[in-house]
């Protein structure tokens, strides 16, 4: 089975979706470690409850981002993942660490990339009067949230939405989006070749809509 390491900073509902799909027999992966930059993140407890080794490392102990990432990714590399999944990992990753894992690291982001990279995506979509919003799964490259997109899920923006309501509607679609994207990679159907996503060895002309 594909060996998967998960990086996460918070609640961990996307990790839980991977665990649940694995337990249901819908996802042939081995989750070999969960890594967090926050010792108090609920995702760590979720991991341990699922029998997954969970590790946290505090950035405060490091003078520079590159030094923190060297230590974090040494721990990640130690579990020998085929794939690294950023699932609510809220810290920038230094380009050296990204480059060492190019084509083997994906991220789920709560917007229809290339719209709204970065933070506060739901509030920014609302402020712009967007009528559609969603989430994307993409390969990670050094530029923030700019890597080639594998798949997206779209939701409508409704007239009475606030950021909390909109983020709930998006999150409800994120879990299947992430599970199905990881399944495509585990099945060897999706990969990244020279910065381009391929489906069944052919270039993907547009993100999958899941
Ligand atoms: C998810 O909405 C994910 O898309 C977002 O954080 C949330 C994590 O939820 N990620 C980012 O904003 C990355 N910049 P979870 O901890 O319940 O999986």
TrEMBL record:
The keyword Transferase applies. GO terms for biological process: 'de novo' IMP biosynthetic process. Keywords: Purine biosynthesis, Transferase. The record marks 145 as: Raises pKa of active site His. One of its GO terms (cellular component) is cytosol. It catalyses: N(1)-(5-phospho-beta-D-ribosyl)glycinamide + (6R)-10-formyltetrahydrofolate = N(2)-formyl-N(1)-(5-phospho-beta-D-ribosyl)glycinamide + (6S)-5,6,7,8-tetrahydrofolate + H(+). Pathway: Purine metabolism; IMP biosynthesis via de novo pathway; N(2)-formyl-N(1)-(5-phospho-D-ribosyl)glycinamide from N(1)-(5-phospho-D-ribosyl)glycinamide (10-formyl THF route): step 1/1. One of its GO terms (molecular function) is phosphoribosylglycinamide formyltransferase activity. InterPro entries: Formyl_transf_N, Formyl_transf_N_sf, GART. Catalyzes the transfer of a formyl group from 10-formyltetrahydrofolate to 5-phospho-ribosyl-glycinamide (GAR), producing 5-phospho-ribosyl-N-formylglycinamide (FGAR) and tetrahydrofolate. NCBIfam families: PurN. This is Phosphoribosylglycinamide formyltransferase.
């Amino acid at each position: 089975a594909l060996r998967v390491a998960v990086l996460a900073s918070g609640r961990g509902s996307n990790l839980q979706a991977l665990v649940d799909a694995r337990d249901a027999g819908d996802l042939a992966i081995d989750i070999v470690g969960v890594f967090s930059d926050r010792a108090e993140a609920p995702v760590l407890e979720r991991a341990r409850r699922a029998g997954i080794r969970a590790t946290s490392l505090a950035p405060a102990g490091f003078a520079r981002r590159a030094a923190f990432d060297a230590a974090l990714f040494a721990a990640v590399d130690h579990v020998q993942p085929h794939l690294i999944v950023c699932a609510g990992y809220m810290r920038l990753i230094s380009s050296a660490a990204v480059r060492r894992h190019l084509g083997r690291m994906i991220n789920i982001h709560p917007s229809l990339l290339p719209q709204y990279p970065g933070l506060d995506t739901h509030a920014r979509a609302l402020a712009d009067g967007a009528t559609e919003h969603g989430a994307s799964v993409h390969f990670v490259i050094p530029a923030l949230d700019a890597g080639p997109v594998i798949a997206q899920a779209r939701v409508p923006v409704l007239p009475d939405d606030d950021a909390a309501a909109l983020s709930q509607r998006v999150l409800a679609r994120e879990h299947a989006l992430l599970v199905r994207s990881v399944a495509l990679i585990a099945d060897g159907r999706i990969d990244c070749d020279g910065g381009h996503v391929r489906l069944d060895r052919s270039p993907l002309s547009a993100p999958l809509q899941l």
